[in-house]
Amino acid sequence: MLRVLILFFRAALKTRAQLALENLALRQQLAALNRKAPRPKLRRIDRIFWVFLSRIFRDWKSCLLIVQPATVIRWHRQGFKYYWRWKSRKPGRPRIDREIITLIHRMSRENPTWGTPRIQSELHLLGHEVAESTIDKYRIKPKSPGQSQTWRTFLGNHMHETIACDFFVVPTATFRLLFGFVVLHHKQRRIIHFNATHNPTSEWAALQLQQATHDDDLDIRFLLRDRDSIYGEVFRNKVKSLELEEVRTAPQSPWQNPYAERMIGSLRREILDHVIVLGENHLRRIVSGYLTYYHEIRPHQSLGRNAPIPRKVDPPENGQVISTPMVGGLHHRYSRAA
């Protein structure tokens, strides 16, 4: 009874305008509570109403029942931010065309092993200059030791007359091991020779080196290799007969033969990790198809984001972008066609 009397006297002291605003606030809350929902949700119009009411009605907190006053204050601050964000909007960086975003999605989806630099190189060859941060933002990400300065200087000074060779192991469907052998020319990251065998010997490796260097157009002086025991006396004699100077890496230091190691890593990631090799001939066919893609299509960061056999930039005015499956569909070539 005492509470009723207190409320009565408080209402008697209020002005007509205050009573009208309080009545309006209570009616609005009743309307929100009467909505057909287990838990009434405030709409944007409700938030705007309470923000506006808090500006003109000093006692708005006393008649607020379904939300906390701090909530209304938070709404007001959010509205303040939105207002001044709209008020102070300025033209920033140009927006990325939807076509480029779709193309980034397409490339990353069709080539899950590609990273941001590879996609950036392909876009460059299609006439789109896009920052790495933009590509990294929009590309679809899959779920799933540095070089010595001395060696880098050496390789840079002698790149045009240096080749590197290395072996790598490939398991077959019959659980046997195949040994692949590659010879890489440093000048344009070209693979000048590849072969595979079940039984690698020093004589076999010497024969592969002779076949790799039979081209008289190659001005080669240095052969970079590791200290594997397969490079025996027969191999070393063949190197001398070809008038090449051997440069051997330090023990257990594959990073000193960076280009060959990186090429073998690319070969594994981009083709060998996705197929089951049946035998020597099968491996040769697989690698042969990949090397066509590697030399003519695949862009390289060190070659100005272009392929060893340079591709021409295909500007947007040449037509729509089309994709051509390569290497059995594991990779794609992107070009423009009218």
Features:
338 residues, Nucleotidyltransferase, domain 5, 5-stranded mixed β-sheet, two-stranded antiparallel ribbon, 12 helices, 7 strands, elongated
Q: What order do the helices and strands come in, and which of them pair?
A:
Blueprint: H1 2-13, H2 16-33, H3 44-56, H4 69-87, H5 98-110, H6 116-125, H7 132-138, H8 149-157, E1 162-171, E2 177-185, E3 190-197, H9 202-212, E4 222-225, H10 233-241, E5 245-248, H11 258-270, H12 280-296, E6 320-326, E7 331-337
Parallel strand pairs: 1-4, 4-5
Antiparallel strand pairs: 1-2, 2-3, 6-7
Helix pairs in contact: 3-4, 9-10
Runs with pLDDT <50, length 5+?
145-149
Please identify the structural class as seen in this structure: alpha/beta
CATH class value of the largest domain? Alpha Beta
Could you describe the largest sheet, including whether it forms a barrel? Answer: 5 strands, mixed
Give the neighbour order of strands across the main sheet: 3-2-1-4-5
Tell me, what's the shape? Answer: elongated
Give the N-to-C terminal Cα separation: 87 Å
Write the CATH homologous superfamily of the largest domain.
Answer: Ribonuclease H-like superfamily/Ribonuclease H
H/E element string?
Answer: HHHHHHHHEEEHEHEHHEE
Description:
The chain has 338 residues and is α/β, with parallel strands linked by helices. The protein has three domains: 2-87, no CATH class; 98-143 and 308-337, no CATH class; 149-296, Nucleotidyltransferase, domain 5. The chain is built from twelve helices and seven strands. The strands form two sheets. It has a five-stranded mixed sheet, with helices on both faces. Helix 3 (44-56) packs across helix 4 and helix 9 (202-212) packs parallel to helix 10 (233-241). The longest helix is centred in the first third of the chain and has 19 residues, at 69-87. The protein is elongated, with a radius of gyration of 35 Å. Mean pLDDT is 82; it is low at 145-149.
